[in-house]
Amino acid sequence: MPINKEKYQQILQELNGKATLVAVSKTKSIEDIQELYNLGQRDFGENYVQELIEKEAALPKDIRWHFIGHLQSNKVKYIAPFIHLIHGIDTLALLKEVNKQASKYNRTMACLLQIYIAKEETKFGLTEDELETILNNSEFSQLKNVKIAGFMGMASFSNDTKLIKKEFNYLKLLFNKNNNLPIINSQLLILSMGMSADYKIALEEGSNMVRIGSLLFGKRD
Ligand SMILES: *Cc1c(COP(=O)(O)O)cnc(C)c1O
Q1: How many structural domains is the chain composed of?
Q2: From CA 58, how far away is CA 52, in angstroms rounded?
Q3: What is the value of pTM for the model shown?
């Protein structure tokens, strides 16, 4: 399926340099990704480790790959050499594994903590209490090869604009409240929220990184 060039330009204009566009290419072909790359896009997001490593091997090396799915600890090692940003960290155990793998490559890996903001049980993420527990854990402050670069959240899958706005607003407030993290090199700079259906609301609520798939690449099967 050809990518939607008009939509791409329109979204870039809407973001106006104030938010980063992560083009979510999961399930999409190498050719589709290359086409968007040729228009200048460099940030791409993927959900599945196997798919990501195949694409990374086949595509230009200056692509910044974002892992936006639910990452299993035993798969961190496959993406550790090249991943640019991991969006979905939701346990200390996972963060420790990322730290371990990053140290093997002498890297400092940038991560976002995923916060639970939706009204649905199906979405992953930390509650505010769980976030506090991690931030106050002494092991957390000793991780040297990861840095927490911000938060990520997914709003409810709903037509209720007010609800979505409220959920994004909650995340923005939590983000503002936590700008003094007890971990080396960490500073909350990135607030990753907003997808095809709700990115405009997310931008109104202070998002500076949106993850957009279907508007650019068409519907997924
Ligand atoms: C698939 C996915 C997106 C993109 O969804 P679209 O509705 O196609 O824009 C964004 N974020 C995450 C975490 C996803 O899994």
Answers
A1: 1
A2: 10
A3: 0.96
